[in-house]
C-alpha cells in the first residue's frame, strides 16, 4: 500500500468517526433533553475521561508498534501508591493544607513518574531484548506490579493528600477542568511525536514491517524500549489524576479501564497488527465512549450492563475492521490480477 493510499484510508476512518461522534451527541441531546447538553454535564465528563483517556493513548502507542500493554492499569496503581505513600509519610494530616506542602507534592509526582518509566522500561526490555511476546510480557508485569502494590499496602487504601495535590483531579482553570487540560497537553505531545519526529516515523515503520525497518537501519529494540517507557509515563500521569480525584490510592482502581482503553484504541482506527492510526481518531473514540457512558449512567444502567455493552462493542468493532481489511486485500488482489491480464 502506497503512502498516499494509506493516509487516504486513515483519513476516511477519521471522517467516519467524526460523523459517528456528532451523530451520537445529536441523538442524545434529543433523547435526554435538559440533562445531556448542559455545561454541568460536560464539565462532569471532562473530569472523568482524562484518566482512562491517557491510558488509551498509552495503549495506542503500544498497538502502533504491533504490541499491546496490559500492564497500564497495574503501572498506574503502583505509581499512584508510591506517590501517595511519599505524601502521607512526609506530611502530617494537620499540615496537609500548608502551602509548603507543594514541595512534597512535586517530589511525589516526580518519584511516581520515574517509577512509571522504570515499569515501562521493564516491559520494553522483556519484549525487545528477551523476546517475550508483548501480550505475555505485559500480562506478567501486570501481575508483578499489582503484587508489589498489594505487598506495600496489604490491600488497604492510602488516603489523606495535600490540598494542592487534590487540585490535579478536582481543580479547574476558568471553565476548564485541570484533568482535561492535562489530557489535552499529553494528546498534543503524543500527536507531535507521531507526526513530526523521526521517532514517530520509526515507530510506524516498526509496527508496519519490523524486518524492513531493521534493514533500513532502524534499531527496533531501542524503538520498542522507548515506546513502552512512554506508555509507562502516560500511565503514571493517569495515576496522578486518578488518585487525586479519589483522594486515595489502592490496588484495583481503574480495573475496568483496561477493556475501555483497548476498545477506544481499536474504535479510533488503530490497527492491532501495527503501523497505522492517529491520535485524532483515538481522541474521537474517547469522546464517543465517554458520551455513551454518561448516557448509560443517566439511563440508570448497571455496571454489569455497561461491561456487557463495552465487550460487545469491542467484538463488533474488531469484526468490522477485520471485514474491511479482508475486503481491501481482496480488492488489491483483483486489481493486480486485472493489471496483469491487461499487460
Q: What does this molecule look like?
A:
- This protein has 343 residues and is mostly helical.
- The protein has two domains: 3-300, ABC transporter involved in vitamin B12 uptake, BtuC, CATH 1.10.3470; 305-343.
- Helix content is 78%, strand content 2%.
- The chain contains 13 helices and four strands.
- The protein has helices at residues 3-31, 39-64, 72-90, 101-130, 134-153, 163-170, 178-196, 198-208, 210-215, 220-246, 257-267, 279-299, 303-342, and strands at residues 158-159, 172-173, 176-177, 248-249.
- Strands 1-4 form a two-stranded antiparallel sheet. It has a two-stranded antiparallel sheet with strand order 2-3.
- Strand 2 (172-173) and strand 3 (176-177) form a beta hairpin.
- Helix 2 packs antiparallel against helix 10 (220-246).
- The radius of gyration is 21 Å and the shape is globular.
Count of helical segments? 13
Question: Which percent band covers the strand fraction?
Answer: under 5%
Taken together, the total number of domains comes to 2
Largest sheet, if any? 2 strands, antiparallel
Helical amount: over 70%
Q: What strand line-up does the widest sheet have?
A: 1-4
Give start-end ranges of low-pLDDT stretches. Answer: 1-9
Layout of secondary structure:
Blueprint: H1 3-31, H2 39-64, H3 72-90, H4 101-130, H5 134-153, E1 158-159, H6 163-170, E2 172-173, E3 176-177, H7 178-196, H8 198-208, H9 210-215, H10 220-246, E4 248-249, H11 257-267, H12 279-299, H13 303-342
Antiparallel strand pairs: 1-4, 2-3
Helix pairs in contact: 1-12, 2-7, 2-10, 2-11, 2-12, 3-4, 3-5, 3-10, 4-5, 4-10, 6-10, 7-8, 8-10, 11-12, 11-13
Amino acid at each position: 500500500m502506497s503512502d498516499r493510499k494509506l493516509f487516504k484510508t486513515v483519513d476516511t476512518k477519521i471522517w467516519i468517526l467524526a460523523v459517528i461522534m456528532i451523530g451520537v451527541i445529536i441523538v442524545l441531546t434529543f433523547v435526554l433533553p435538559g440533562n445531556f447538553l448542559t455545561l454541568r454535564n460536560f464539565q462532569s465528563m471532562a473530569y472523568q475521561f482524562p484518566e482512562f483517556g491517557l491510558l488509551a493513548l498509552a495503549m495506542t502507542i503500544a498497538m502502533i508498534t504491533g504490541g499491546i500493554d496490559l500492564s497500564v492499569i497495574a503501572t498506574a496503581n503502583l505509581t499512584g501508591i508510591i506517590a501517595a505513600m511519599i505524601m502521607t509519610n512526609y506530611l502530617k494530616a494537620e499540615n496537609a493544607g500548608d502551602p509548603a506542602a507543594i514541595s512534597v507534592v512535586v517530589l511525589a509526582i516526580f518519584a511516581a513518574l520515574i517509577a512509571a518509566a522504570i515499569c515501562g522500561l521493564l516491559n520494553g526490555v522483556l519484549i525487545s531484548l528477551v523476546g517475550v511476546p508483548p501480550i505475555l510480557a505485559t500480562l506478567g508485569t501486570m501481575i508483578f506490579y499489582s503484587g508489589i502494590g498489594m505487598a506495600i499496602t496489604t490491600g488497604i487504601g492510602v488516603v489523606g493528600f495535600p490540598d494542592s495535590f487534590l487540585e490535579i483531579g478536582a481543580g479547574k482553570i476558568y471553565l476548564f477542568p485541570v484533568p482535561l487540560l492535562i489530557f489535552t497537553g499529553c494528546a498534543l505531545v503524543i500527536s507531535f511525536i507521531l507526526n513530526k519526529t523521526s521517532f514517530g516515523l520509526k515507530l510506524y515503520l516498526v509496527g508496519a514491517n519490523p524486518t524492513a525497518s531493521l534493514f533500513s537501519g532502524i534499531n527496533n529494540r531501542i524503538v520498542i524500549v522507548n515506546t513502552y517507557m512512554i506508555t509507562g509515563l502516560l500511565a503514571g500521569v493517569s495515576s496522578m489524576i486518578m488518585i487525586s480525584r479519589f483522594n486515595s490510592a489502592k490496588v484495583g482502581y481503574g480495573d475496568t479501564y483496561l477493556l475501555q482503553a483497548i476498545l477506544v484504541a481499536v474504535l479510533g482506527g488503530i490497527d492491532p497488527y501495527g503501523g497505522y492510526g492517529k491520535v485524532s481518531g483515538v481522541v474521537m473514540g474517547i469522546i464517543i465512549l465517554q458520551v455513551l457512558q454518561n448516557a448509560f449512567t443517566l439511563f440508570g444502567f448497571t455496571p454489569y450492563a455497561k461491561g456487557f455493552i463495552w465487550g460487545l462493542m469491542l467484538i463488533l468493532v474488531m469484526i468490522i475492521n477485520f471485514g474491511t481489511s479482508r475486503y481491501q486485500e481482496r480488492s488489491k488482489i483483483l486489481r493486480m490480477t486485472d493489471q496483469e491480464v491487461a499487460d
